[in-house]
Amino acid sequence: QLKDRLYKCHFIKQSKEVCGYPLSIFFIVVNEFCERFSYYGMRAVLVLYFKYFLRWDDDLATSIYHTFVALCYLTPILGAIVADSWLGKFKTIIYLSIVYAIGQVAMAVSAIHDITDTDRDGTPNNMTFHVVLSMVGLFLIALGTGGIKPCVAAFGGDQFGDHQERQRRTFFSVFYLCINGGSLLSTIITPILRAQNCGIYSKQKCYSLAFGVPAALMVVALVVFIVGSGMYYKAKPEGNIMGDVCKCIGFAISNRYKHRSKQYPSREHWMDWAEDKYDKLLIAQIKMVLKVLFLYIPLPMFWTLFDQKGSRWTLQATTMDGNFGAIVIQPDQMQTVNPILILTLVPIMDSVIYPLIKKCGLNFTPLKRMTVGMFLAALAFVCAAVVQIEIDVSRKHLTYFNLTQFLKIFPFLIIIRATFFLQSGQLSCAFSRDFGFGSSYTFFIPSTLSLGSNCQESITGAEDIKPNSVHMALQVPQYFFITAGEVMFSVTGLEFSYSQAPSNMKAVLQAGWLLTVAIGNFIVLIVAEVAKLPKQWTEYVLFASLLLCVCIIFSIMAYFYTYIDPTEIEAKFRRNVGDDDDDKNDKQRKLEMEMMKRDLDRSDDEHYKGKQTKM
Ligand SMILES: C[C@H](N)C(=O)N[C@@H](CC(=O)O)C(=O)O
């Protein structure tokens, strides 16, 4: 470890800097931007791809969407283990990014309807091919995006020396902005691409382009990351800390069980039963981690609600009117409200709201913020329920026909006037109609129709589904509350987890945090399946009520939590060990310590000088 720290010190001192930041982090930041563009861009149109391309119903589309998201947040554990114990972060990012890019390409190919459209009628003839290919693609994407997730931010953090604490903090803020910048751009762009018509034999909604551009961005992300290769500090794998933690916990439990008889004196904490075999410092660190993990138990419920933006809320938007006058918003584009609000709310919260609360003499601790965040998410679902009731009322009087007998047209986006061509051999005729957002029509084509004559008059139509009348702007309040909740819950939660984690287990807690997201997405499936509520608004109310209950439980747990300073606790343990080990110190170790101290002092001096010059 000493040698590694010395090497890092030398490496960082010799590496190129721009405005006090290592040049290497620019490649990492650009890589993150492109990767998040790729991920969120694909995710934005995913539920509509299931519904309109693969022809799945709302429930199946929602279930598969959440299974995919859950998988994306389960694989970080795998990525962290591979990186820490085997490949190191750099190689893990490279290899898994390749898997990720292949997955994105598979998705893009799966959305080309012409591949199996043998009769050239615009619909794929072998749906199994498209389903299987897209499922394989999604699996590879989940493996890639989840696997690299705990590595990229930590790899960026590794590029800074101990004397660059301020720069490292700025890097993490910029990193979060890049995530949301990439997400914002892609959720604007991919729905536009999806709404285009493309195809070789027949023109259909262009899901292949909507998945193809994210695939290209993932390749760009990989190339950018590789270009920076020579500039990175690549820490060696530290060993499987997660494995050590599990083994130590396992030993504590089995040892406790072996000594269950009353003749053995009880110990203060059940983890103390591991002392017979494991280092006291490791046990203390595990205790810190377990304390935080216990607090995590209610957290998945927040994600259960949060991640329905991409599924239920997007499907809700398809039944709303997206005509904003100058622009027409696609249902999946409504998701951009989230990153837009994140980019505005994070600075407002940090520089206005939190300082103001502090000025009022209130101690708004991280756990209190997270509780408020949960409450806001529940409020968002109450808003979603109100909007749903409004939509249901507006669509109550509609009559549905059996549409299969006739030509059925779903103008999915607003079409002011569309023209259709009927063709038979050399003869053709055209007719035009006006359509509203989300409406559906059946046209009756008389068998006596002679092509070449005026179709406009001969073809009659019936409106099966009226145009959507509830405006998409009504979704803004629910997006506002869920995003304000995200800022208070997610941003604070990440910071809390980092500050309460022991130095060598920050990645373990990061993986634990991401696991709460995965479990949250599985809860969507379970609740939706078990409850099977006939009305969508009642499902929204159910989710809001569940989160409210969980919020109360969490606030009680938070009340009893005592904040700790892991560095101080670790230092105390190290001091104790240091006292015991004094005799064992040999010349070599002293020499190494001396060298490292001199080295660190020198970098501190340079940092101090740098500060003075700036002042
Ligand atoms: C775009 C979201 N607002 C966001 O910031 N997402 C983060 C955190 C997460 O959900 O995992 C990200 O994509 O890393």
UniProtKB/TrEMBL annotation:
<dbReference type="InterPro" id="IPR000109">
    <property type="entry name" value="POT_fam"/>
</dbReference>
<feature type="transmembrane region" description="Helical">
    <location>
        <begin position="209"/>
        <end position="233"/>
    </location>
</feature>
<keyword id="KW-1003">Cell membrane</keyword>
<feature type="transmembrane region" description="Helical">
    <location>
        <begin position="288"/>
        <end position="306"/>
    </location>
</feature>
<dbReference type="InterPro" id="IPR018456">
    <property type="entry name" value="PTR2_symporter_CS"/>
</dbReference>
<dbReference type="GO" id="GO:0006857">
    <property type="term" value="P:oligopeptide transport"/>
</dbReference>
<keyword id="KW-0812">Transmembrane</keyword>
<feature type="transmembrane region" description="Helical">
    <location>
        <begin position="127"/>
        <end position="148"/>
    </location>
</feature>
<feature type="transmembrane region" description="Helical">
    <location>
        <begin position="409"/>
        <end position="431"/>
    </location>
</feature>
<keyword id="KW-0325">Glycoprotein</keyword>
<feature type="transmembrane region" description="Helical">
    <location>
        <begin position="60"/>
        <end position="81"/>
    </location>
</feature>
<dbReference type="InterPro" id="IPR036259">
    <property type="entry name" value="MFS_trans_sf"/>
</dbReference>
<feature type="transmembrane region" description="Helical">
    <location>
        <begin position="540"/>
        <end position="564"/>
    </location>
</feature>
<dbReference type="Pfam" id="PF00854">
    <property type="entry name" value="PTR2"/>
</dbReference>
<keyword id="KW-0571">Peptide transport</keyword>
<feature type="transmembrane region" description="Helical">
    <location>
        <begin position="369"/>
        <end position="389"/>
    </location>
</feature>
<keyword id="KW-1133">Transmembrane helix</keyword>
<keyword id="KW-0769">Symport</keyword>
<dbReference type="GO" id="GO:0016324">
    <property type="term" value="C:apical plasma membrane"/>
</dbReference>
<feature type="transmembrane region" description="Helical">
    <location>
        <begin position="340"/>
        <end position="357"/>
    </location>
</feature>
<keyword id="KW-0472">Membrane</keyword>
<dbReference type="GO" id="GO:0015031">
    <property type="term" value="P:protein transport"/>
</dbReference>
<feature type="transmembrane region" description="Helical">
    <location>
        <begin position="93"/>
        <end position="115"/>
    </location>
</feature>
<keyword id="KW-0653">Protein transport</keyword>
<feature type="transmembrane region" description="Helical">
    <location>
        <begin position="21"/>
        <end position="40"/>
    </location>
</feature>
<keyword id="KW-0813">Transport</keyword>
<comment type="function">
    <text>Electrogenic proton-coupled amino-acid transporter that transports oligopeptides of 2 to 4 amino acids with a preference for dipeptides. Transports neutral and monovalently charged peptides with a proton to peptide stoichiometry of 1:1 or 2:1. Primarily responsible for the absorption of dietary di- and tripeptides from the small intestinal lumen. Mediates transepithelial transport of muramyl and N-formylated bacterial dipeptides contributing to recognition of pathogenic bacteria by the mucosal immune system.</text>
</comment>
<feature type="transmembrane region" description="Helical">
    <location>
        <begin position="507"/>
        <end position="528"/>
    </location>
</feature>
<feature type="transmembrane region" description="Helical">
    <location>
        <begin position="169"/>
        <end position="189"/>
    </location>
</feature>
<feature type="compositionally biased region" description="Basic and acidic residues">
    <location>
        <begin position="576"/>
        <end position="609"/>
    </location>
</feature>
<comment type="similarity">
    <text>Belongs to the major facilitator superfamily. Proton-dependent oligopeptide transporter (POT/PTR) (TC 2.A.17) family.</text>
</comment>
<protein>
    <recommendedName>
        <fullName>Solute carrier family 15 member 1</fullName>
    </recommendedName>
</protein>
<dbReference type="GO" id="GO:0015293">
    <property type="term" value="F:symporter activity"/>
</dbReference>
<feature type="region of interest" description="Disordered">
    <location>
        <begin position="576"/>
        <end position="615"/>
    </location>
</feature>
